[in-house]
């Protein structure tokens, strides 16, 4: 410790910051703030270089997030998942899985719309929200924001059921999606 104190004494004294006044987060943040302020400039450089080196090692070994903060990456992933734009997706399913009452082992490509429509809020949506908050509209199931829905549908889908009967279903699969 004598070598570290002699090396840090050769550096010019770093200006000390006073701890911020924290109303609600008081004790824990004040403790960390006081702890960090107690470090000399040389100790802070060592700490930062150790953190940078740990980050480099994690990235070189295939890691995708800081090992010090493992939950931060998952929070960002959840945040991005909530704000995916409205887009067309597809899934290969059997006709029976569609839930339309047909028994068939034939498979179809089911295209559907998924995502959020935050950017498409219109005057209608704002007015509807206001009417609901003022209780002018009650007990009705109304969404006061745009929904990601099909704007156009693929061609009709035809198939044979388990009893060799031929069926055609229209407006089954989305062709184009948008916020309505």
Automatic annotation (TrEMBL):
It is found in: Secreted. It holds the Pfam family TGF_beta. The keyword Secreted applies. One of its GO terms (biological process) is nervous system development. One of its GO terms (cellular component) is extracellular region. Keywords: Disulfide bond, Growth factor, Secreted, Signal. It comes from the Eukaryota. Residues 1-16 have a biased composition (Low complexity). Residues 1-22 are annotated as: Disordered. Residues 75-180 form the TGF-beta family profile domain. GO terms for molecular function: glial cell-derived neurotrophic factor receptor binding; growth factor activity; receptor tyrosine kinase binding. Growth factor that supports the survival of sympathetic neurons in culture. May regulate the development and maintenance of the CNS. Involved in the development of the neural crest. Might control the size of non-neuronal cell population such as haemopoietic cells. Acts by binding to its coreceptor, GFRA2, leading to autophosphorylation and activation of the RET receptor. Heparan sulfate-binding is required for signaling. This is Neurturin. It comes from Climacteris rufus. The gene is Nrtn.
């Amino acid at each position: 410790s004598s070598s570290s104190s002699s090396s840090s004494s050769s550096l010019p004294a770093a200006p000390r910051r006073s701890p911020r006044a924290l109303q609600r987060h008081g004790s824990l943040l004040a403790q960390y703030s006081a702890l960090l302020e107690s470090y000399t400039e040389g100790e802070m450089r060592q700490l930062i270089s150790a953190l940078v080196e740990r980050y480099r090692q994690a990235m070189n070994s295939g890691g995708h997030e800081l090992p010090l903060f493992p939950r931060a990456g998952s929070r960002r992933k959840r945040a991005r998942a909530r704000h995916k734009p409205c887009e067309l997706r597809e899934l290969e399913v059997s006709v029976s899985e569609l839930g339309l009452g047909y028994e068939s082992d034939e498979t179809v490509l089911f295209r559907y719309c998924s995502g959020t429509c935050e950017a498409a809020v219109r005057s209608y949506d704002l007015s509807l929200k206001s009417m609901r908050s003022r209780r002018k509209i009650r007990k009705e199931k109304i969404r006061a924001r745009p929904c990601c829905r099909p704007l156009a549908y693929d061609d009709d889908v035809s198939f044979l059921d388990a009893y060799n009967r031929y069926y055609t279903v229209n407006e089954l699969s989305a062709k184009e999606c948008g916020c309505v």
